[in-house]
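Notes on consecutive records. When two proteins share a document, each keeps its own sequence and its own token line. Never mix them. Below: protein one.
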Amino acid sequence: MSYNVKGEQRNTGRTHFKKGFTPWNKNKKGVYSEEYRRKISDGGKGRTSPMKGVKHSDETKQKIKKARKAQINVSGPKGKPWSAARKNAQIARNGKPYIIRHKRKSVLKNLKPLIKNGKEYHPLWHEIRKLIYKRDNWNCQECGVKCHNNIRINCHHIDYDVTNNDFNNLITLCASCHAKTNFKRIDWTLYFKAIQNNKEAEIIKISV
């Protein structure tokens, strides 16, 4: 859509060209000589920012400061109210410690709890799941794929109770298989329990 008044300009992306107009240099190469292109390039060099050296008044500074304070980080949780599940988990925590992972050390500190989807995990959950990964040789126990940087590894609670961290209740899954366990939970629970029971039976045979 073109402007109605010649010379009128707005920041809308519209131009004075009528619909269907084709610019003379469309899809044409080599229109400008190397010398002319060099002049255009050199002409843009050394230009300074139009705001360089401009000083804001105290009133403008206060307006900018006030506007920035009112901004909310829409891409993250900052500035957003807690959900009811998050509030209940925080109350239930009641000052329990959680684990901070720093390089190769794991330290318990009384700061934020480890909460996912409103459920509070064991403070040593990061260390527990590593033991499960090592036990299962970093392989998904459903599809058998070897988990690495491109295939995300997950530790699944067979009975879906994040407080039950018994090793027989934990199993290694890739992210794809883990996502499938959100449906038909009873069937998956029985299925993975049977897998764990078979593993125990094999271990008993080997030991005997």
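Protein two starts on the next line and is unrelated to protein one.
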Amino acid sequence: MLQNLAVMRGWPLWTRLAVAGIALTLACLFQIPLETEMPDEPFLLFFLIVIASTVAFGEGVGFFGVGLSAFLSFLFFEPFGSLALQHAADLIRIESMR
């Protein structure tokens, strides 16, 4: 197992970044339709992919995964894709989630 990890960490940097980026993008595309049905934890899959990419590809790729997942997480904020409150009802909805 450790030998396989050493081989994967020996891949070119662009390949490791591309694999981590594709995995996070696919997770985001998978989670967006599920967010309307199950709105509780959209970030768990991001967390698992970042941990797996850090173990498999090294700390640098893991840091890239954290940054990309933080960028992609804006799609899951209410109102959709924005941090700004548009209506008073948005604040009431946020307060009711506590």
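For the record: The mean pLDDT is 84.
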